[in-house]
Amino acid sequence: MAAISAQTLFQFVRELETIEKILSSKGFWPKFCLEYGWSKRFAVPECCFCDTPFSAIHHHMEVYGNYGIGMSKQWGIQKGLSPLMYHLKESKMSKNLRKLLQNAKTQKNEEVIYRQLVLMKQYQAVNYHKDEGGKLKQLKNYLYYDEREWRYIPDLPNYKDLLRFVENQSELDVLKKRGLDDSTKPFMCTFTAHDVKYLIVKDDLDRILLASSIDKMGSWNENDKELLKSKIIINELINNDL
Fold first, then answer.
1. 136 located within any domain
2. CB of 92 within 8 A of CB of 128?
3. Closest by alpha carbon to 237, among 12, 70, 17, 58?
4. pTM, entire model
5. How many domains does the structure of the chain reveal?
6. Domain containing 230: what range?
7. pLDDT tens series, the chain, 242 aa
8. By C-alpha distance, which of 75, 28, 80 is closest to 188?
9. What DSSP string describes the chain?
10. Does some domain include residue 131?
11. I need a labelling partner for 127 at 20 to 30 A (CA). Which of 11, 34, 42, 238 fits?
């Protein structure tokens, strides 16, 4: 029977350089992303992964990019990642949570609720993402439920550092240009070479380029470099053979 979920947590990106930066820093940098579906739109620092088997990730790569890194699910559990809970806007659960927010008498009560909402996502909605040229695209009626997302949220004690209430992506981009993401860099989700299961690149040329880049990274010892290079695969193999 085919597996519904994977024992790997994947993150896909659009550029090989991003994979190189993740490897060189030995960690995933949580950056602010806009969340929709509640009475207020808010941004929260996060690192997102999908719990999807190889046989089903082709569509995910089409949306988010042809380069990826696959991490051990056990690593994710140890680092405190959590699978998201998906909600329907008109479900009883969503309505009850909106009522709780409306009736929150203190900032402390509101904080408790929002700390739960950062681990929830709409079942289906518009998907906003940037294409390879940096242009914001929209996919209507996108089924987020299929992503089986797991999320890393840094444990920031200050509520004001965890959430930013913004109306749209343009407003968030302005805050990012002012250095909003800099505050979360000390809270990177770190890993070892043994935690990495796959490094996915677009083609054979990228395989050579990534291997060469790993050889130059001073953050890894020689054994770790060889281990990382052994994890490189091209997505053509995934699409055609797996």
1. no
2. no
3. 58
4. 0.89
5. 1
6. 8-84+148-241
7. 455 667 899 999 999 999 999 999 999 999 999 888 888 889 999 999 999 888 788 888 888 889 999 999 999 999 999 999 999 988 998 999 888 888 887 878 888 888 889 999 999 988 877 666 667 677 888 889 988 999 999 988 787 788 898 988 889 999 999 999 998 999 999 999 999 999 999 999 999 999 999 999 999 999 999 999 999 999 877 766 55
8. 28
9. ---SS-SEEEEEES-HHHHHHHHHHTEE--EEEEE-SSSS-EEEEEEEEE---GGG-HHHHHHH-SEEEEEEHHHHHHTT-EEPEEE-TTSHHHHHHHHHHHT--SHHHHHHHHHHHTTEEESEEEEEEE-TTS-EEEEEEEEGGGG-EEEE----S-HHHH-EE-SSHHHHHHHHHTTGGGGGGGG-EE--GGGEEEEEESSHHHHHHHHHHHHT-TTS-HHHHHHHHTTEEEHHHHHHH-
10. no
11. 238
Provide the residue type at 197 as one letter. K
Instruction: Specify if 103 maps to a domain.
Output: no
State which amino acid sits at residue 226.
E
Q: Identify residue 238 by its one-letter amino acid code.
A: I
